[in-house]
Each structure stands twice: as C-alpha cells, then as structure tokens.
Amino acid sequence: MTAQQQGVITTSPDDTRRPRRTRTTILAVMCLVILVALFIGYLPGLQYAIHWTSTDVVLAGISFLICMAYSTELSSVPVASRHTAIPLLTTMLLITGGFDHLFSLLIVITLICTTIPARSLSIGAIRACTALVPIPVVRLVLGELPAHLREIFISSVPRAEALNYIQSDWVFPLIVITALLPAARLLCDIVVYLISGVPVAKSLSEYSITRITALSLADLAAIVLTILLPAVFQYSEVQIIDSSLRSTFSILLDIYALLLMSFYMLRRMMRAENSLRCLLNISDALPLPNARPEHEVAEIITGSLPNIRCIMMTDDEMHHRRFHSYRHSQRIKEQGSQYSIVFERSMLNRPFLPADEEVLAAATSILNEELRVNREVSTLRSESETDPLTGAYTYPAFIATLKSLQTENASNKVAVIYLNIDQFRRINERYSRLVGNLVLRTTADRIREILPEDAFLSRISGSEFATVLTESASKDDVENLADRLRDNTSLPIQTGNGTISIATTTSLSFASSEEGATRLLIDAGLHELTPAMAEQNQEQSAKDHLEMSDALRDAIEKKHLTLLYQPIFSLPQHRIGALEMFPLITDSRNHRLDFDFVLSEAQRLGLGCELSMGILDRGVKDLLEFRKITPDLNNICLTLNGSELGNSQFYEYLESLRKRHPDISVCLQFGEAALNTARIQFDDELEDLTSMSNVHIAITQAGTTYSEVSALGNIPLDIIKLDPSIVNGYSNPLAVNIMKRTVQFAHRDGIHLVFDGIDTVEQTRLLHEVGGTEAQGTIYASMMTASEMRMRLETMGIDMGSAESGEVDVPSGISDVPGAAGVAGVSAAADASGSTSADASPAAVNRPGEKNDGNDITKPSYDL
C-alpha cells in the first residue's frame, strides 16, 4: 500500500488492530523468557539427533522450514495467533520418538519464521509462543498413544489388531484435539489481548469462523491419515525401520504444508484479482452520476468483492453490528454532510486482507475526485444552462435534454407540458418590466410547487415554460398535472402596483412508440412559434421532415451528390488556400436541405460515413478538374458528422486517397457532433488519422461551446476555425484585444487560425487590425457550384481579388464572374453606406440555410 493510500485509512488510538507499544513490549519479553527457558531445557536432546543419517537430517530440516513457512492469519490483529502445521508436526514427532530431540530446534525455527514476516522481534516472539501453544495440548491428550502406534510400525502386529487399536483408542482423543486446539488458540489470544491492551470484544470480531473451522478439519484429516499409515503398511506387508519411518513422515508433512500453501496462494491471487476487477469496474463506470455517486461506488464494490458489503455511513449513522468487523475510510465532505466509505464483513466470512484496504483507499480517492468534478461541472452547467431570472433551465438545455432522451429512454414514457402566460406583453407595457419579471418568477415558483422531483423545468421563450416528465404513468396523469399547473399559475399575483390577474394556457406533447423522443423534438421547434401556429404546422412539419429524410437517403445511396465550394483565403499571399465543400441536396419541391440537417440526419440514418466518402469522391474529381487550370490548388475541407470516426472504411478510404493522389490534402473539420463522438470513440484511431501525411485536423465554430475548448487539449489540431459570431464584436475594444492575443497564441503554436463569416467591410478591417491571416466569407467569395468555381478560376486564378485593408478591388472585365459579383457588390454597397446591404451581399446567392431567389431553403423547425 502506498503512503498516499495509507493516509486514507482511518486510524485512531483505540483501533482494534493496534496494540499498545509498552504493554506489547512487556508481553514480548515474557514470551522470549519462556522460549529461552524451553530451548535450554530441551537443548540436551539435540545430541541424540547426531546419530541420524544425512537423509533424515535433510528431510527433517526441509520439513521444519516448510512447516514454519506456512501460516495463515486467523485474525487481522497483529498479535493474534496464526494457523500452522505444528499440531501435525508434533504428532509425527511423538510417533517417531524424536520430539524431545528436536523441540529445541523447533523453537529456534519458529521464532525466526515468525519474526521475519512481522519485521519485529516483539511481534515475532508473541506469535512464536502462540504457535507453540498447541504442543502441550497434543502431548496431554495423546499421552502414550503415539508410542504404541510406533510399535505397530516397527513390530509385526497383525493388521486386524492394528485397525482395532486405532478405532478403539484414537477416536476420542482426535475429537478432543479437534475441539481443544482452536479453543487453546482463542484462550491464548484473549490473554495476549488483555496484556497488550487490545480491546477483546472488537478484536474477536476480526476472526473468521469459517476459516478456523476449515483449518481445524484439515488438521484432523491430516492426523487421521497419519495414524492410519500403520494399517496401510501392515496391509502391504512392508517392513519399516526408524529411518524409513522418519523419512515417510517428513515427506507427508511436506505434502500437507505445500498443499495448504498452494491453496491459500491461489485464494490470495483470486482475491487480488477481485480487487483489481473492482477498481476496473469503478473506472469503467466513470463518470459517475451527479446524483448520489457514492451509492454507485458502494454497489460496484459490493458486487465485485465477495463476502464484503460496502456501505456509506454518516456521522449520525456510525453504529456497528455485533459479530461484524469494519474498515472505515476518512470522512468525505459533500455539500455540508460528512460520511465515510465502510467495508463490513461477518465473522462467518473470510477476514479482511491488505488488498481490501487498498480498494477502500483507491475508491475513496476516486469518489473524492469524482465529487469534485461533479461540483465543478454542476457549477458550469448552472451558470450556462440556467435562466438567471427564474432559475429554470434555458431553451438550449431543454433541447439537449430531449436529445439525450432520444437515445437513452427506450420505454418512450416521456411527456412535455408547455405553459404560456397569456398577454404577457400587455403586463410589461401596462405595469413595467419589473412587474413582468415578478410575474415570471412567481409563475416558475408555482410550477415547481406541483412538479415531481425528477421533472425538468425550462423557460423556452419570453413567457413560455416547458416541463419534461420522464417515466410518466399515463396520458391521463399528465393531463391532470397540466390542469393543476394551469389552475395554480392562473391565480392573482400581489405586486407593488396592486393585484394582477393573469391567465395561462397549457399544451401537451408525448413521445410516440414509432418515433420515440423525436416527436418531442419536432414539437419543441414548433413551440418557438405561437401555439396557434404550432398546432397548424405540427403535422406538416413531420411530413416535411420525412420527405427531406427520404431525399437525403436517396442522394447518398445513389451517389447523386452535388457540391458547393467556398474558398478559404490566405491573406498574406492574396490567394485561395483551400476549398470547403458543402453538399447540395434538394427535396421533391426543389428546396435545398440545410447543411446541419444533412449532417445530423445522415448520422441518424446510419449513412454518415457514406455521406462523407461520397463528398470526398465528388470533391476530388472536381479538384482534379480545377487543377488543370490552377495546379497549385490542392487542399479541400470537409466537415465530419461524427459517425465516420468508428468506421474502418473511412480510414481505409483516406489511405487509398493518399496513395492515389499524394499531393492532395484533406482537412477534416470537427463540429460539435463529431467532437462529442470523438470524446467517446476516438482513441487509437486518432493516432492513425493524424499520422497520415495528407490529413489535417480542424475544429469549427471554435469559441462557442465547452466541447470545442476541451478539444484543444485532447486532439492534435492543425487548424482552428473561429465561429462567425466572434467577428461580430468589432465595436468592442476588449473583444478586439482578445482576438489579437488569440492570433498571437495561434501563430506561436503553429496553428492556422481561420476567421469564418467575414461578410462586411468592417469585419475585414477588424481582421486586418488583429493580424488575421486566413479568412472565409462572402465578402471574398460566396458559395458556388463546381462549374461556377471553374469559371472563377479561369478568369481570376487563385488570386483573392481584394486589398489588405479590406477595400475590395475587382479586376476589370470580370464583374460577371460568379464570386467576383459578390465582391463588387460589397464594394458598391460600402462606397454608398459604409456597410454591405442585404441585397448586395452574395450570402443571399448560394448559402445553405437561407433563401435563394424563389426557392426557399428548407430547414427543420427544430435542431437535430
């Protein structure tokens, strides 16, 4: 056990396993005096052993060492007696007549073998005495029986008489010995505990009745086999002499001790394996749930360690059951309460082992760290996902909850109750916004009064709340709860301006058995509209979603993919550095599918990898055509949907692409969905991916979510693409300074920083001010089809066509070129008003997710 782990185990002055040092020393001196006296008394008998043969001496020495090396704890108390093979050894020495000759040697070997593992002469002396206590018991009970048994070996006694003698004279002594040996050890331990100052009652609970019984029966079985040997020899009519007799008993003693040693070594290995498996199970369960993670740990330990129960005890619950022993961890402080991890075992079960204490220490460390992480995560979530006015969750948190239920709740017993405050704008206009805020807070509090404990309350718009109910009993129960919520929130509210009467309306949404929680997501998007509009559009939205999904599936499976390209410019070189690819897919009404919808829906359909490989196929073909015009153009960018990361075909495709076109580089962009997948699945594959010479890694929308920030430390990035919202802070000096520092850090670490969403002249000036070197946006070039991109390259090449200062210059004669039109339009608008207009911006030409002339670009009314 390491020093850090030892610090986790609770120790106290009255610990049942810690004897008092002064008393223990006195007891050890007494034991040493007894051992020395016995050694001196039996020392003369050693002279008779010199007449033994060398074989007898070697066998006897090996037997003594093996017999002493074997021992197993009967209790976890250091001064407690241990089980040894001495009772059997004593019986054999009495039978062979060598006890008086070798007892002095036995004392020395016993003292050495008990002192070395204890690493203390005091503890070793006490253990040596307790180990030798069974000897007088055996001698007293057996008396002259061993000498008679020796005569059977040496003399020619008929087998029938030998069996009769064993059955008539040995049965009762064996029963007495079997009962007296554990009793003698127990009595000896009680005396030792009393003298050394160890609490007797608590120390006795450390015993294992099962182990004591099993070892006593093992000793009995060994002695029975020993005394049956004469009958065996008589049956085989083999004559035996003293030397052969001693050799036979030595070998049998060795076999007995080695069998016990092997058995307990295997048992210890099994328990050590259980301990490791327990820690692995705890690690596999990480992260533990935010609610009551200590109970999760207790269940894992109880299920992994046989015959041990893990419980959590607070200071008020610290009570011990009789005939049970315990191990406590240090107190764990969590939200004002203090509790400890406690291991409990019965006296009928196996004793505690050092491995158990190591598991306890490791589990305590893991739990403390997990609680700390949960606290920090909860604080971050509370700050980012909680509405500061009402304390309810925000709309993004509401959508995230529905998404999680989409995959986690297999029973589909989920319902959402929407509650809206009628005429809330009138309350703000008539009574002021302060009163309106009071109405919102009061309504949220009234909703919480009725909701179940596991319900999820969020404020999804100015005056609308949503409540998510999991494991709802029935539709009638949800409707009754909605009626109660409406009645409770429609009560008048007392304000500083008097009593205000308000009215609320509710609507319900249920998960369906066919679509699961997807139905809730559809309804969640509709509830951003007014209730009347939501009711009218709900059915049409579901139908549109299915039509778009079918169109996407058909395009992927039949490989009917068309791409849009938008250049990424290198500002210092005034050239196109790469082309970003977007799939151009339309539904049956010729409405273009939103890019985010394409990525998420392809992943849901299980076609995410096929989509990415199809885009790469189409993009490489188009790039080869572009390079006939501009050979220096060799970089393409693709945004991943997340499902590619666990698919070996995608990695094989990239490797094949590298071999076919070694001069083409692919930039794989990780959005939020891909990052979430990478956090779960992306381990060894990341090494394989980044080792490819033609692959670069980027993250998109950086600076908006925690997942992208954490990716900076987990994924070896080449490129960071900032979210378009970042460049909207050009009027804030603090934001400008932050962007300057960000650019400096990126340059220092060799990371390419791409500013996305550069659509106005002001943003280009900001980009120049902060020192940005790579940009993408409609002011430079809008999205265009492959034919339009080819035309642009034929007329302008890979030149950017704009000045460093952000004043866009368009070469004469190319105003009709796609992409250049956008640049010219921006320049004209900038000259007229100093900023771009909606009509002049090329964002309205080909950008997915927006309107394109007469064809509306279809986007689901909810976020997938």
Automatic annotation (TrEMBL):
SMART domains on file: EAL (SM00052), GGDEF (SM00267)
Pfam families found in the cross-reference section: EAL, GGDEF
InterPro entries hit by this protein: Cyclic-di-GMP_PDE-like, EAL_dom, EAL_sf, GGDEF_dom, Nucleotide_cyclase, Rev_trsase/Diguanyl_cyclase
Sequence segments annotated as region (Disordered): 825-864
Entry's transmembrane regions: 25-43, 49-70, 91-112, 170-195, 215-235, 247-266
Ranges of Low complexity composition bias in the record: 825-844
Residue ranges of every copy of the EAL domain listed in the record: 545-797
Single annotated GO MF: cyclic-guanylate-specific phosphodiesterase activity
Assigned keywords, A-Z: Membrane, Transmembrane, Transmembrane helix
Domain GGDEF as annotated: residue spans: 412-551
Protein name: Diguanylate cyclase
Phylogenetic classification of the source organism: Bacteria, Bacillati, Actinomycetota, Actinomycetes, Bifidobacteriales
